[in-house]
TrEMBL record:
Pfam families linked: DUF3470, Fer4
Function, in words: Ferredoxins are iron-sulfur proteins that transfer electrons in a wide variety of metabolic reactions.
Stored InterPro entries: 4Fe4S_Fe-S-bd, 4Fe4S_Fe_S_CS, 7Fe_ferredoxin, Fd_C, FdxA, RnfB_subfamily
Protein name: Ferredoxin
Reported cofactor(s): [3Fe-4S] cluster; [4Fe-4S] cluster
Superkingdom field: Bacteria
Length: 112
C-alpha cells in the first residue's frame, strides 16, 4: 500500500502534510502536490494532516490512475519538505469537483 494525492489538492495545495513526512516523498507542482508511490513508506501520518482530505490510500477503489499521475509528476517536480501558505482562493476551491480536468497544471512548483 502507498498513499497518493487526489484532485482535491488541486488549486488548494495545503502543505501541512509535507512537514510530517519522514521520507520526504512529496513533490510540488504549480497548483498541487503529489506523493512518489515508490518512496512512500505507508506510514499514514500525512493523511490526517490534509485539511482538504486529498490524501488517500491506494487501496481505495479506482485509485490506479491517481497512483500513475502521482508517480509521473513526482519524477518531474521538485521535492517539498517545508510548509508554505496554501494557494490564494483555496477556501473556495476545497471540495470542487472535476478539478483534474479543469485546473490541473503539469508545470513544476518551486520546491524547497
Amino acid at each position: 500500500m502507498t498513499y497518493i494525492v487526489t484532485d482535491n489538492c488541486i488549486m488548494c495545495k495545503y502543505t501541512d502534510c509535507v512537514e510530517v513526512c519522514p521520507v520526504d516523498c512529496f513533490y510540488e507542482g504549480e497548483n498541487t502536490l503529489v506523493i512518489h508511490p515508490d518512496e512512500c513508506i505507508d506510514c499514514g501520518v500525512c493523511e490526517p494532516e490534509c485539511p482538504a482530505d486529498a490524501i488517500r490510500p491506494d487501496t481505495e477503489p479506482d485509485m490506479e490512475p491517481w497512483v500513475e499521475l502521482n508517480r509521473k509528476y513526482a519524477e518531474q517536480w521538485p521535492v517539498i519538505t517545508q510548509k508554505k501558505e496554501p494557494m490564494a482562493g483555496h477556501e473556495e476551491m476545497d471540495g470542487v469537483t472535476g478539478k483534474l480536468e479543469k485546473y490541473f497544471s503539469a508545470n513544476p512548483g518551486e520546491g524547497d
